[in-house]
Design brief:
158 residues; alpha+beta; 5 strands; 46% helix
Length: 158
């Protein structure tokens, strides 16, 4: 009988200690460590998201002006040189381009350019993307002054 009583006292003491631990909650150091871990994860995630977002905005800007290539080809085949973005059915400003311009460099390089000044997040805002048409070969090539990790298939260097 005494063994049963000793076991009951031991279990009562253990149960009281567990209840005290549950009621205490977290210590300050545990909370600070948790907040630090969350902060580190958030900063890494934010950087990765910013790079992904810059890539998608750059690609969108590039595609907004790429739509004018076919119209320009059609006009050039008829002997007409477009002078403005409106001539090749592009708006002068779009969601990702603050300004779209056409530049005729046939007298110097033989190229015609469709140029977009990008508006987007801080990583690519103000950068330029251009579709350059070589007059002799008729091929198009994309060039930009944006940092290479944001540009995808476009070439770095204007």
């Amino acid at each position: 009988m005494t063994n049963i009583y000793h076991c009951q006292v031991f279990l009562d003491n253990a149960d009281t200690q567990v209840r005290k631990m549950i009621n205490q909650g977290f210590t300050l150091i545990e909370l600070l460590i948790t907040i630090a871990i969350i902060g580190i994860l958030a900063s890494v995630t934010f950087r990765a998201y910013s790079v992904y977002f810059a890539k998608s905005q750059f690609t969108s800007a590039m595609e907004e002006i790429a739509a004018g290539k076919a119209t320009m080809e059609n006009m050039l085949s008829q002997g007409i040189k477009p002078l403005t973005a409106d001539d090749i059915s592009l708006q002068s400003s779009t969601k990702y381009c603050t300004q779209i311009t056409i530049r005729d460099e046939t007298s110097t390089t033989g190229d015609i350019l469709i140029r977009c000044q990008i508006k987007g997040n801080h990583l690519i805002n103000g950068k330029v993307v251009r579709w350059r048409r070589n007059s002799s070969s008729g091929t198009w090539r994309c060039t930009t002054n944006a940092i290479s990790k944001y540009i995808g298939t476009c070439e770095n260097g204007l």
